[in-house]
Amino acid sequence: MQKPLAGLSRRNLVRELTAGVTLLAIAIPLNIGYAQIAGLPPTAGLYALIVPTIVYALAVSSRQLVASPDAAAAALVASSIGGLAAAGSADYATLALAQAILCGVMFLLLAVFKLGFLANFLSKPILVGFVGGLALDILVSQIAKMLGVKIDSGGEFVDKVTGLVTGLGTTNPVSLTISVLAVAVLLLGKRYLKAVPWALVVLVVATLAVVLLHLDDLGVSVLGEVPAGPPAITWPIIDWTMWLALIPSAMALTLVTTAEGLLVSRSYGEKRGYATSPNRDLFAFGLGNIAAGASGSFAVGSSTSRTAAMDQAGSRTQLPSLVLAVGTLLLLLFGTALLADIPSPAIGAIVGVAILPLLGVKEFAQLWRADRFEFGVGAVCFLVTLFIGSIPGILVAFVLALINLAKRAANPAIDVLESSGEPRDSLLDEAPKGEVTAPGVIVVRLAAPLFFANGSVFDDAVKKAVRRATAAGNGPVRHVVIDMEAVTDVDVTGAESFEALLTWLEREQIELSFSRVRADARRRLDKLDLLGDHDVYETNRAALAALVPMKGDA
Asked: Do 173 and 307 fall into the same domain?
């Protein structure tokens, strides 16, 4: 088992500490913004950087993955809890704690029972659509904050857009100026001097401007007083019916984090040459979320952007996360007075620029070029999440994933092979040629397990192959050989379709044989009584040699 802080040595200690300071500068302004997106006080975002971060950093197998609430998770928290309690109320905060604990329990169950594969159902188009819908919803709220326009940030997307458009006449010119300058600095700085923590620079300069020029007297909204002190250990006390009501949203948060977190963890492990353990990572997410719920924060996920920033800074350990936790604690103990005058337009600009990549514009363009069906899957998921809600969005995502899976499973590669074993004629093409492998013999290969989704498809394909070969003038087909190399399993429904095919072949006086049957598939075929007295050949060549009078080897 990999030790905590694996990879740390005297040689890289200074670099890791410096990366930790960079992470602190990035995380504090973002987490304040994410807490506001979630409908929680700024302290909820800062508390997430202390106990949950320490617990996660000491338990995870990844040396680089940074755990924290992110924009998508914050939006999901707001949309799911907003219908159960009023944003900003004590009940709302309590539900957020309970939701984080439920996420933690689910992560632990995934780790113990090794169920992380379930997140694989959230394919790239689904994740792009789901996160993109949440991001656009967030962006509208941040634009309103940047303009100084008051809207109901907990409302539906259409209501937010309507409130923003109708409220444009109340735009505060000073807030707009702060926002424009902040966005310009963030975008230009990110392009030309990536190493500088521009979010912190914007936050400090904007706050100084508010204090020195008294911009709050001109209508600029500020963060306000932030309670000082470390997070207190607590436990949410709510009715059991409310625990049940939080389960769907906790599942959505858990699955999205699992899909993204494990992918990022594995990719950086492979990139930097160290081993990662998916189940240990899930276990770490579980502990981190329970710690979040017990210390006044909200659901914790993986931060792709901060992980990338740490990788660029040369960090290869979890020490920066520990530096982040210590720095945040010191800020809460001694520096909360510095946070009171942070202007809301600056926070809106920082969060808005941070979530722009989450809109998925580039990814949608790639999907459009690569696969229109997958683009459609992402687009539907995007629209449902945006206009109906995050929970319906994740449910639709799973339905679309199953449809996509069934669509591909129901159309496996089914080919007539040449005598060399190469595909000669795809039986699922629009215009198959009706060819045979050898005179009177067709070798058909199914490149998938035979099960309920493709059993009838395979049955029809073999029948069509026989009919088309005869119609093409290749003579009567007397032998059909099923190449079983790629058939790893057969279910009951697939077996029934296969039995129907056997009956048809017998009626047509066509002999059936098998070749290259895998050992596990053979046991399954025997159990389903499908092999019968049919010949089974080790190779296709052996089958052709036995069935076709030839000179030499086939």
From this structure: yes
pLDDT digits (tens, 9 = 90+) for 37-54: 899 999 999 999 999 999
Q: Are residues 381 and 259 in the same domain?
A: yes
What's the CA gap between 537 and 554, in Å, rounded?
14
Is position 552 within any domain?
no
Amino acid found at 296: G
Question: pLDDT tens, 457-516?
Answer: 999 989 988 998 888 887 889 999 999 998 988 999 989 999 999 999 999 999 999 999
Read off the pTM. 0.78
The 10s digit of each residue's pLDDT in 151-206 is 877 678 888 899 999 999 999 999 999 999 999 999 999 888 877 888 888 988 99
Domain that holds residue 258: 13-404
Of 355, 374, 404, which marks where a domain is finished? 404
Kindly report the CATH number assigned to the domain that includes residue 466. 3.30.750.24
- Report yes or no on 554 lying in a domain: no
Q: Pairing mode, if any, of strands 511-515 and 479-483?
A: parallel
Q: CA–CA separation, 475 vs 440, rounded Å?
A: 7
Torsion of CA 343, 345, 348, 352, to 10 degrees: -140
Amino acid making up residue 382: F
The dihedral sign for the CA sequence 164, 82, 401, 118: positive
Three-class SS state of 136: helix
Task: Identify whether residues 129 and 271 lie together within a single domain.
Answer: yes
